[in-house]
Each structure stands twice: as structure tokens, then as C-alpha cells.
Specification:
The complex is a heterodimer. By secondary structure, chain A is mainly alpha-helical. Helices cover 70% and strands 4% of the residues of chain A. Chain A has one domain: Orthogonal Bundle (Arp2/3 complex 21 kDa subunit ARPC3). Chain A contains eight helices and two strands; from the N terminus they run ααββαααααα. In chain A, β1 and β2 form a beta hairpin. Classes of the chains: A mainly alpha, B mainly alpha. At the A-B interface, α1, α2, β1, α4 and α8 of A face α2, α4, α6, α7 and α9 of B.
């Protein structure tokens, strides 16, 4: 889901940098208020945790393995604003070190995976969990938070790619950037994610949350107000 | 661009079994393989950035400016010849930077093929990009219309579609070559410091630098845990449970390390004000290179 360079027109990637930049500024301000001088080590370690989560492969049907984005579990464990910074740092390092995702697309990729996904995941988790502490309900909330969060993120990417033929085509209609219209990008991303990748994300989120709930419930950001 | 790390240290292939066949690695092994890839990539970049080439001699600020300006020019060009011209302009820089031209362009070719050509191939058909037919692929009995989709009776390759796929391939390949050139010739910490040019807050840059460094420490821990588990277990174990447990352990460790790092920072007089180490001084060669990049950039923009 990392959009490479060359797929987005300047009309898209420049505004995406502005929008994501606004979220980064808001997140850093919010966290500075909460953490004061502890902000740097806290966010560093949150980023490292987020980076490591992406290293864990789990088997998926069909004999292959996949890894999670990890934004959902980071949002539930550390809070959505922390996830905005932590996942963004990981995406920037990935773009600069591994070439996963383009440099011009950093704004868009961070918006999809480090803004949309943590907030949607967190809200879904809170909505379904309510105040319940039953393992079954918590598991369902965690699975759905990962599943829906990633799906929302994929849809954001699909829209960014799908509007390219509309906003940045040559006068003769030739697409200049991502060539597929919304009628193709949305179903393509939705089907690919709904039946495979979102399940992986949901499972990783559920497995980790269940473990944390059993052994270290006080560390979970979402539960903190319950204690 | 071959690293000097011995191959046996990077081996993630299945191990040979006595009596033939191989021992299949588990999915956890695959994850551990990712860690080796991380080490190799970072080591390779560090090794290339120490060579005596054109880009290695330049200040990171000049290179980041080159990266941003040239990625922009690649993204605004609207035809294939302009993209080819940009590639021609970049070629001498790659050659003079001694990054191993064949391996460098092999990587660019693979990226262009995967993310440009293969991803763009379906767009050559008139189903996606209508236009002047060049080659007929299939003749259906009739045209099909359902919801917002329209499949014409004759499925053809269109001129506009071919140009769109070529454009995407050329743009992806050029972007990859520009990014690789800068990333391979500049240590990561210098790239991050150079982002100050764009007024990125220093504490955000510090988080980036520290995360990159601590990722190494924790990746090593993760690998050690896996090795310890493999050495103690014969047969299968509850792998999903093990992963959840290790992730939780890593989380707890990061929380503890956060406290340690904070105490170390506070002990050294940290009060919340971040000052990153100063960047290398701008030398005459940087000014000359910057002027050359800017001139060529303007030329490319006009052409």
C-alpha cells in the first residue's frame, strides 16, 4: 500500500504534505503537552515498536505470509496521536532506507497509514468495546479495529490514485500519472485488502491485544481511563 | 553495489538436510530474514557513502536539494522524451559517484519494471484507456455494460494506453534513480539533518535519528530471542503465541528503554531544547555543484 514516486501528480502530493504536516504539528504539540521533556524518548521507542511490529510475519491462507502495518495496535496501545508520529517515522525511514514508498508520496502514505488508520482503528475499537472487559468482545473489537482501520487506509490510497486520471490527464485524455480511474482503484484495493491483508492486520491486532490484556492490561492506552 | 558482509551471515535460504532435501524455515524465520535485509541495506548504504565519488564529496544539504528539485521536475514532465532526457542528465552523476553503475541501474530497472511497467500494463487496453487502436487483442460477441463499467466489443491496445504505461515506467525509474543516488551516497543521519532546510522541527529530526539507531538494537534483540528459541525447541511450538509474547516483551522493553534514555538525557542536562549536531560546512564544491544542479534543473524544466 506504499504509493511509489511517479503515481501521484503534484496537484495531489503537495496538498497531501500540507494536510499530513498539519496532523504532525498537532500530534507533536499534543504529545509535548502530555509528556513534556519525555516526549523524545517516548516517541522514539513508540516508533521502534511500530517498526518491529512490521517485522513479524504471520501465515495467511494460501501458503504465504504477510506482515501488519501495526498502526491499529500502536493506536490502541499508545493512543492515536502517538501512532500518528510513530508510524510516520517508520514510513519515512522505510522510504529513505528501503525505498518502500516514494519520497514525493511520503505525505500521502503518512496520511493513509499514519493518520487515517490509527484514528479509524482507535475509534472502531472504542466503539465496539464500550466499557466491556470480556475477552470475546475485546478480541472482536481488536480484530475489527485492525480490519476496518486498514480498509479505510486502503480506500484513502485508492481515492488518491483513482482521481489522477480526472485531475492530471493530457488534453487528449492520456493519463499522465496513475492510469486507473476510481471505478477500478476502489474495487481493486477493496477486494485485495478485504479478503487478505485486512485479515492479517486484524489477527495481529487481536493476538497482541489479547496478550497485553492477559499480562499487562495497565499498559493499554485505551484502558487507562478504566483504572 | 555488493556488500562485504559474508554471504553465510545473510543466508535466509532453507538449510540442506542430511539425506537430501531441505529443512523448511518457519514463517518466523521469514521475519528474521527481514532483519538481515535491514542490516544489509543499511550497511551497503554506509559503505557506498564512504567511497570517493562526486556525490559523496558533497554536503548533505546540496544533495537533499538535488533530490527535491529533480523529483519535482520528474513529476511535472508530461511526455516520455522529457523523462528520457532527465535520465540522460542524471547518468553522469551516477557514473561520477562510483556507486557501481550496473548494479545501480539493475535496481532501477527492477523498480521500473515492477512498479511502472507491470503495474501499468493493463492500462494499455481500451477498456481502461480509450483511444486510437494500435492492435486488436480480442473480438467479443457484443459489448457489455454493467453498472459504471463498459467493455467494448473489440478489445484493443491503444496508442494513448501505451504512452501512459511508458510514461509511468519512465517516471518511476527516474524517481528511483534520483532517490537511490542520494540515499546511497549519504549516511542516513546526514540526510535527516539536511531536512532542516525545509524547516522540519529539530525534535522531529531527533526522533527520526534515534529511531533509526534504536531499531538496530532492538532488531538484534529480536534475532537473539529467535535464535535462543530455536536452540531450545525441537518440533513445533505455539508460534502465534510466541509472536504475541515477543511483541509484548519488545513493547515492555521499549517502555523501559524510554525511561533509561530519558534519565540519560536528563543526566546530561537535557531540558527539552533540542540541538542537533551541526552539519558539515558548505564548501566551494557544494556551491559549485548546487549552482550546476540548479542550472540543469531550470534547463530541464524549460525543455
Amino acid at each position: 500500500m506504499h504509493i511509489p514516486d511517479g503515481y501521484l501528480s503534484p496537484q495531489t502530493y503537495i496538498p497531501m504534505f500540507v494536510v499530513t504536516g498539519t496532523f504532525w504539528t498537532a500530534a507533536l504539540r499534543k504529545l509535548k503537552k502530555r509528556l513534556s521533556v519525555k516526549e523524545i524518548p517516548y516517541l522514539t521507542m513508540a516508533s521502534v515498536f511500530s517498526f518491529l511490529i512490521m517485522m513479524f510475519n504471520i501465515p495467511i491462507p494460501g501458503g504465504t505470509t504477510g506482515h501488519a502495518v501495526g498502526a491499529a495496535i500502536v493506536a490502541v496501545l499508545l493512543g492515536p496521536w502517538t501512532a500518528v508520529v510513530a508510524v510516520s517515522v517508520v514510513l519515512i525511514v522505510q522510504a529513505l532506507v528501503f525505498g518502500d514508498g516514494g519520497i514525493t508520496a511520503i505525505g500521502a502514505n503518512c496520511f493513509n497509514m499514519a493518520v487515517v488508520m490509527p484514528f479509524v482503528s482507535y475509534w472502531v475499537f472504542e466503539l465496539i468495546r464500550g466499557k466491556s472487559t470480556k475477552v470475546a468482545r475485546l478480541s472482536a473489537s481488536a480484530f475489527l479495529s485492525g480490519y476496518v482501520g486498514l480498509l479505510a487506509s486502503a480506500m484513502a490510497a485508492a481515492v488518491e490514485l483513482g482521481i489522477q486520471p480526472l485531475i492530471a490527464a493530457a488534453p487528449d485524455g492520456k493519463p499522465l500519472y496513475a492510469p486507473y480511474p476510481l471505478s477500478i482503484t476502489i474495487p481493486a484495493m477493496a477486494i485485495g485488502h478485504m479478503f487478505l491483508v485486512c485479515i492479517v492486520e486484524g489477527m495481529v491486532t487481536m493476538l497482541l491485544l489479547r496478550y497485553f490484556y492477559k499480562h499487562q492490561p495497565k499498559l493499554i492506552y485505551s484502558f487507562k481511563e478504566d483504572y | 553495489m555488493k556488500s562485504k558482509i559474508p554471504s553465510f551471515l545473510l543466508n535466509t535460504q532453507p538449510y540442506p538436510k542430511a539425506g537430501g532435501g531441505t529443512v523448511k524455515g518457519s514463517f518466523i524465520d521469514k521475519g528474521i530474514g527481514h532483519i538481515s535485509e535491514f542490516y544489509e541495506t543499511v550497511f551497503l548504504q554506509w559503505e557506498l557513502s564512504q567511497k570517493d565519488g562526486l556525490f559523496q564529496r558533497l554536503n548533505a544539504k546540496t544533495k537533499v536539494l538535488f533530490l527535491v528539485l529533480y523529483l519535482f521536475v520528474v513529476s511535472v514532465k508530461k511526455d516520455v522524451p522529457s523523462e528520457v532526457l532527465t535520465a540522460v542528465f542524471i547518468l553522469p552523476f551516477v557514473t561520477m559517484s562510483r556507486v557501481g553503475i550496473l548494479a545501480f541501474y539493475w535496481k532501477v530497472f527492477i523498480a521500473g519494471l515492477l512498479f511502472g511497467f507491470i503495474a501499468g500494463v493493463p492500462a494499455v487496453l481500451n477498456v481502461i484507456t480509450p483511444g486510437e487502436p494500435v492492435y486488436t487483442i480480442l473480438e467479443l460477441r457484443r459489448q457489455y455494460d454493467f453498472w459504471i463499467y463498459h467493455v467494448p466489443q473489440t478489445i484493443t491496445v491503444t496508442r494513448e494506453g501505451i504512452l501512459a504505461a511508458l510514461m509511468l515506467t519512465a517516471r518511476v525509474a527516474n524517481s528511483v534513480s534520483i532517490t537511490l543516488l542520494v540515499v546511497c551516497t549519504t549516511p542516513f543521519s546526514e540526510v535527516v539533518k539536511a531536512l532542516k532546510l525545509f524547516r522540519v522541527p529539530e525534535y522531529f529530526l531527533m526522533i527520526l535519528t534515534l529511531s533509526h539507531k534504536y531499531a538496530f538494537i532492538f532488531l538484534k534483540m529480536l534475532r537473539d530471542m529467535h535464535t535462543a528459541k530455536k536452540a531450545r525447541l525441537i518440533g513445533s511450538a505455539d508460534a502465534a503465541g510466541w509472536i504475541a509474547g515477543r511483541a509484548a516483551y519488545i513493547f515492555k522493553k521499549t517502555q523501559l528503554r524510554c525511561e533509561d534514555v530519558y534519565k540519560a538525557m536528563a543526566g546530561r542536562g537535557f531540558t527539552g531544547e533540542v540541538k542537533l549536531a551541526k552539519m558539515q560546512h558548505t564548501k566551494t564544491v557544494d556551491i559549485m555543484a548546487g549552482a550546476m544542479f540548479l542550472t540543469l534543473w531550470m534547463l530541464l524544466l524549460i525543455l
